[in-house]
Design goal:
Layout: H1 5-16, E1 21-24, H2 26-32, E2 41-44, H3 48-54, E3 66-73, E4 78-86, E5 88-91, E6 101-104, H4 108-113, E7 122-126, E8 138-142, H5 146-152, E9 154-155, H6 161-167, H7 170-182, E10 185-186, H8 188-197, H9 206-218, H10 222-231, H11 235-238, H12 240-243, H13 258-268, H14 274-282, H15 287-290, E11 292-294, E12 297-299, H16 303-317, H17 322-333, H18 346-356, H19 358-373
Parallel strand pairs: 2-4, 9-10
Antiparallel strand pairs: 1-2, 1-7, 3-4, 5-6, 7-8, 11-12
Helix pairs in contact: 6-8, 7-9, 7-10, 9-14, 10-13, 13-14, 13-19, 14-17, 14-19, 16-17, 18-19
Length: about 375
Amino acid sequence: MQIPEYIKKITDKLEKECFEAFIVGGSVRDLIMDKIPKDWDITTSAKPDEILKVFPAAKYENEFGTVLLPLINEESSASKVVEITTYRSEQGYSDRRHPDKIRFEDKLDKDLERRDFTINAMAIKLKVKSRKLKVNDYEIVDLFGGGKDIKKKIIRAVGEPIDRFKEDSLRMMRAIRLASELDFSIEPKTERGIVKMAGSIKFIAKERIRDELIKTLSSDNAYYGIMALYKTNLLRYILPELLASENVKQDRHHIYTVFKHSVLSLKYCPSKDWRVRLASLLHDIGKPKTKKFIKGIATFYNHEYVGERMTRKIMSRLKFSNNDIQKVTVLVRNHMFYYNADEVTAASVRRLINKVGKENLKDLIAIRIADRLGSGTPKAK
């Protein structure tokens, strides 16, 4: 287990001033799983004003006991901000995100009780300040079985799931996102809590929903993530337009409903870019509105143009950037490009590049691959 020197120095300084200090949260989870933490959080018995005395360069500009310490990582010369938070308990969440009342605590257990999932509710106390820590050099505080849940590969809420989701409804999406990123499953009681509380996601700021959706789509198990959103009823509040395709059957080139085809296209999308994955999920979003029968055969003429408009509306609602909206809608609008190898000419390729931009050509091909592999027809193989 390796912990950066600057983190050890922070805990050491706090302890020298007779305060408790623990590494806490997702960084502990990552260390236990032999992953490199992206962020480091420290919790302490020191109150905010006491933290500021130990670290004069730190800033305290909130009401939640979190002090921000900017510093330079000497090992990589990169600037970082470490969050140092006073032990606290919380009461009331009228806005479904921030606690109405904060109480600073003297004991670590009160702080861990307020956290979302067991795998995020562990803490590490350093006993030795060596660079590489052996088992006896640190102590893991695990009051809720987070270590066992990591071994079982499950996401479990701390305490009662419904209580945790009432505190912050975004935790429901976070549970699914973590399961997608870590290749875990959601513990049944926690999953039932999500199903029961799914409607409360509508009270969450669209920007926060967008960020969790991007992280889910960026994960190695994006298909699982979207299907988990569907299974728990969250999808109807996040992407209701997608559910309109749930029972829309197709003919000829597809054996699945539009919805199943869409999620399978996401599954088989070869790109790691979340924007391309989102386009693969939404590329046929316009089909339910354009379905017509001609001589008994289902057709979806111009669904790509309807889909472009719908995708733009969806992404605008979720507060995506204009650049991301432009990228995804270009892919949706042009996913029907003609590509039979024996018939495509150099001139038609040039026209396509002029139409979509050279920078989008590879991504457009990825959409077509996803589309064909998600169709379930022999041609897809």
